Amino acid sequence: MAWREDGGALVQDYEFADFAVAMVFVNKVAKVAEAMGHHPDILIHGWNKVRLTLTTHSEGGVTDLDRRLAEAIDRL
Amino acid sequence: MAWREDGGALVQDYEFADFAVAMVFVNKVAKVAEAMGHHPDILIHGWNKVRLTLTTHSEGGVTDLDRRLAEAIDRL
């Protein structure tokens, strides 16, 4: 999957069949994030789109923790 | 609850005890939105904050549908 670096964060955009499918994905991401103790910003917009933004605020940018979270999300 | 009008949308910010509680709220909002067939933009950020943005894209601004959705969310 294609994460891009944007403003000190890893960003990826997703598009789904509908809002319900988008919410299923968001809840899977939330479960992975809780398990890792590292939480992405999640924007659900336009009824079927999701944008994930991963950064480590305490470090002011992308860290290995963000990269590991991105890899875990890619495995969903 | 205090919705503000901002750029042709109704916007409200929420803060929760933690990410899990924020996700419970988001899923309740999603259920209400599905029932109404009208979907807010939902931003989950800073591990415990949620921003809801309600607008009717086809009308280019806030409509009664947005106000009804806001009222339904207030009842959660």
Widest beta sheet: strand line-up of chain A? 1-2-4-3
- Percent helix of chain A: 25-40%
Count all strands of chain A and give the number: 4
Distance from first to last alpha carbon of chain A:
11 Å
Assigned CATH class of chain A: Alpha Beta
Q: Give the overall silhouette of chain A.
A: globular
What structural category arises from helix and sheet content of chain A?
alpha+beta
Indicate the mean pLDDT of chain A.
96
Strand content of chain A: 25-35%
pLDDT < 50 stretches of chain A: none
Radius of gyration of chain A: 12 Å
Largest sheet of chain A: 4 strands, antiparallel
Query: What name is given to the CATH topology of chain A?
Result: Gyrase A, domain 2
Order of helices and strands of chain A: EEHEEH
What oligomeric state is this? Answer: homodimer
Domain count of chain A: the total is 1
Tally the helices of chain A: what do you get? Answer: 2
TL;DR of this structure?
The structure is a homodimer of 76-residue chains. In chain A, 38% of the residues lie in helices and 25% in strands.
